[in-house]
Amino acid sequence: MKIIILGAGQVGSSVAANLVSEANDITVVDQDGDLLRDLQDRFDLRTVQGHGAHPDVLVRAGAEDADMIIAVTNSDETNMVACQVAYTLFHTPTKIARVRAQSFLDQPKLFGTEALPIDVAISPEALVTDYILRLIENPGTLQVLDFAGGRIRMVAVRAFHGGPLVGQELRALHEHMPHVKVRVAAIYRQDHAIQPEGDTRIEVDDEVFFVAAPAHIRTVMGELRRLDPSYKRLIIAGGGNIGTRLAKALEPNYRVKLIEHNLKRCKQIAEDLERTIVLHGDAADQELLLEENIENTDVFCAVTNDDEANIISAMLAKRLGARKVMALINRPPYVDLVQSGAIDIAISPQQATIGSLLKHVRRGDVVMVHSLRRGAAEAIEAIAHGDPTSSKVVGRRISELKLPKGAVIGALVRGDDVLIAHGETLIESEDHVILFLQDKRRIQEVERLFQVGVTFL
């Protein structure tokens, strides 16, 4: 596909990195020449310096025959106008815009051919907030991914000593829980992927990805580790868009405190939130954390716009006795550095955002993509179309499919029914297929499997 990305910041550069590796023709537009030169040094792509919403700049970027425009500059207004220009002047088929302001997102009538012709409005802040919410609602998880409208979930959890399944073969899972439908989709041991088979043994510290219905998540987790009690007391560091959204979503069911260093912002947040206690101060102030009973806090979540501040405050909170600490980290090298160390969960906004973009780039009818393992792996929801003569998957058993190495089908959703996959499972037309791919570089092999002719959806 020929794709134009407007904005070479954190989101734009991570989108470019993901898409350029899949043989797409990528052009990145930004006003900052240094950012563009850095991208050109790292990736095989074109760059154009200029304002992304200006028609002459879009012409230089190749908008006249582009398949897609992804507007992810720091300005909502620039992104929205760029999509309007692309639609009016160049009839660009797919237009995606990053929209951060909630006041825009609250007005769905704004987005459509009658008004602003934006096919997809994405809000990284909303996506990150949802990501953190699922982690808090499912204590002890490393990732919680929804598919088929939440009817099936893929969960990542670390195996601990003492879990009933730890040290045993995978086939024992069904002996322990004969009435629970579950499929282990992937295992990572010391960062190396292991293809799960019936005789694969789970070891301490393995990162296990499994697929199950939401009602069975806790039961399966109990096989891999001692279950964490539900969280009650939370401290959020940072009163920006993410921190405020998170507090608003959590305050009906949890006891929430929010720390913000800007006094004016504190007063504004305190008016917006109903039950959250808003504190003015530095989240890395040891005395403040002790005063607020950090040792009795279930989750400390640092979501300021400063990576270093998030890391330091989360590490301090952990040392002072917080049960679980999470830190929002924009720079990928930092994520690798702190994950599974003093910080329990490092949250990457790019990883939370990229999936919502990738599903619009995938060939075939792909309705959901989750980027995993810092972009190396993916979990995909694809819809099978056609019949046995026109499709490579419809009318075939899973054991008959020519899946690429490292690809595992975890479940099928057929109407209202959720079917955990096994070798004899037959795929029917319109089934939603939940698939884990260890190596994202083999995505084209998966796309070809689910194509009925060449389509771009």
Automatic annotation (TrEMBL):
Domain RCK C-terminal, first and last residues per copy: 142-226, 367-452
* PANTHER family the UniProt entry points to: POTASSIUM CHANNEL PROTEIN 2-RELATED-RELATED (PTHR43833), TRK SYSTEM POTASSIUM UPTAKE PROTEIN TRKA (PTHR43833:SF5)
Pfam family of the protein (one): TrkA_C
What Gene3D superfamilies does the database record attribute to this sequence?
Answer: NAD(P)-binding Rossmann-like Domain (3.40.50.720), Regulator of K+ conductance, C-terminal domain (3.30.70.1450)
Which segments constitute the RCK N-terminal domain?
Answer: 1-122, 231-347
Gene transcribed to yield this protein: trkA
> What protein does this entry describe?
Trk system potassium uptake protein TrkA
Organism annotation: Allochromatium tepidum
The record's keywords, sorted A to Z, are: Ion transport, NAD, Potassium, Potassium transport, Transport
Domain of life, per UniProt, equals Bacteria
